[in-house]
Amino acid sequence: MEFHPDAAVCQMDSVIIHPGGQAILTVFFTTSDLQLMFLRERNTSASVTEVF
């Protein structure tokens, strides 16, 4: 960010609701203060791919 101050920054994380079960994928766009949340039935890479 120091070298590219005009770059759009996005932060992504998973919030586990039930271990081995449901999770929420959060995507936060820092420049617009927009946060999106997607409920997933399993915390897997395939479920993240489905969101995108």
Concise structural overview:
By secondary structure, the chain is mostly beta strands. The protein contains one helix and three strands, in the order βββα. The longest helix is centred in the C-terminal third of the chain and has 7 residues, at 45-51.
Shape: elongated
Strand content: 35-45%
Kindly report the spatial arrangement of strands forming the biggest sheet: 1-2-3
Order of helices and strands: EEEH
Question: How is this structure best described in words?
Answer:
The protein is mainly β and about 50 residues long. The chain has one domain. The protein has 1 helix and 3 strands; from the N terminus they run E-E-E-H. The mean pLDDT is about 90.
List the keywords.
single chain, three-stranded antiparallel sheet, mainly beta, 52 residues
Task: Chart the SSEs and their pairings.
Blueprint: E1 10-16, E2 23-29, E3 34-40, H1 45-51
Antiparallel strand pairs: 1-2, 2-3
